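S.,

Sequence below, as promised.
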Amino acid sequence: MGRGVKRAFDVALSGLGLALSSPLWVAIAVLIKLEDGGPIFYGQERVGRGGTRFRAWKFRSMVADSDQRFGPLQAKASDARITRVGRVLRATAMDELPQLWSIFRGRMSFVGPRALLPSEIEVNGAGQAVPIEHIPGYEARHRVTPGLTGVAQIYADRDIPRRQKFRYDLIYIRRQSSWLDLRLILLSFWITCQGTWEHRGAKVGRRRASDATRPPDLSRPHAG
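The prediction came back faster than expected:
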């Protein structure tokens, strides 16, 4: 898919999404306020295409001041920081709705590698902390615009090491096309309807336990 075509698609679909989801924004904002009275939105600086920085916003799904109290840690299964409203938002990816604005502005795309924090640390099998920029595939990810969804988000386990997740991202970078983007968007919509975004394993495509760290073959149609 050419950049111009992809950008036009992103603008059209995000604009439509913003218009259609506006009643949901109001309902979600009210529910967040009713639960604990804290901020409605949560923002983090992320790294975009070419290493540029941008502010990514979500509906807040964790307790207020979570970063200050616990640090910017990735959510785990049964994470005590997640609010009751937040559990529903995260399971359906409704917490990501504000990122439609980032897509409309061109900071993000619907499909691409997930935008990372400027400073993240990966702990390897030996218990050593490794900056993620030292992991193979890190630089290549920034050749494309980060996405709301992507190959890693759909096919990879939530808790596998970054090194393995980056392999999924590189598959997308090499094989990106209009049809692949459409396929990933439709799969993402299906996962949202199922409410299974918070499952720790792969959302689709798992047939054997040995597939846990094996990137999918995107040359074949998905068979469930």
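The chain has one domain: 3-213.

Coffee later?
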